[in-house]
Amino acid sequence: MTESQIVVKNLYKTYRVPEREAGVGAALKSLVHRVYRDVEAVRDVSLEIARGEFVGFIGPNGAGKTTTLKVLSGLLHPTSGEVRVLGFTPWARQHAYLRRISMVLGNKSQMLWDIPPLDSFNVLGDIYRVPPAEFKSTLDELVALLDMEALLTKPVRNFSLGERMKCELVAGLLHRPDVLFLDEPTLGLDVSMQARLRRFFAEYNRRSGVTVILTSHYMADVTALCPRVILIHHGQLLYDGALHGLAEKLAPFKLIRLALRNGHTEEEILRCAQNDGGSAELIEQDNAHFTLRVPRSETPGIAARLLNTLPVVDFAVEDPPIEAVIDQIYQEGKVEV
Fold first, then answer.
1. HEC assignment per residue over 1-48
2. Which residues contact 261 (CB under 8 A, 6 or more apart)?
3. Which residues pair with 285 in a beta bridge?
4. 3-state DSSP call for residue 130?
5. Strand 228-233 relative to strand 54-58, pairing
6. What is the pTM of this model?
7. Which SS3 state, helix, strand or coil, does residue 137 take?
8. pLDDT by residue (tens digit) across 239-289?
């Protein structure tokens, strides 16, 4: 069995938040009598992640994702629970632990804008006490993977958002961490740059065996990189397993898309699809193009009947978009077991 590098048991994190009504009077009153409210950001979360896994950590805004990552990285103390990462207690902030992890946030920067990134990289190499030969080897590898040699000697202030993100990744990986926390790493990037960074993450994970936890609101990041997803909502863990398993569990239907040679009415399509008492539903029509939603168990029979009966010129059977499945969870706030 693969060794677990991250172990979380019954994690809770509660914030004490001050509250007051609007207005000058309420502001003055709060100076002498402040009212607080407890907010549970993370509630009884337990999980394990093995060495080398690439795990998607997803949920709506305010679900508790970043709070959990900050606890795992040692930036926050939990209210209660047990957490071990690489055998360390994260919030003890031991140097031996900090040298083995890294956290890259898409909306934060550790690069100094007025100097070239190479200067910042050299400083970080000294901070993490990376031997010179290892530093050069690692830097050369990362620069080649990210195709950013031309950026090394230019001031950071002249870079695009995507170029700055490349620099942030190099800065976070120079000391070759064993565990990498990625919080919205493609935030605000264009489609082309997002795709390039996904290729980099996949290749780097394959080469180095680093354990990665990725949070992202772009489901394309998750589907491209994460065989396993952990879904959190209102601070509670709702699902931990394969991404395709989540779709099958929540969406017990498939989509059949077909285009016909001659004009056919909605009634004719449904009559053919429901010939044996099936429960196919027509959800979209655009001229001679139709989309049917059918139960998974009935899909083979309905597909065969449509192909054998109608003048089909184009045909496809698809799973529902994963974005629609995830949105269903966010709206309902639960996953049926």
1. CCCEEEEEEEEEEEEEEEECCCCHHHHHHHHHCCEEEEEEEEEEEEEE
2. 288, 311, 312, 313
3. 290
4. coil
5. parallel
6. 0.79
7. helix
8. 899 887 777 766 778 888 998 887 777 788 888 888 766 678 888 888 888
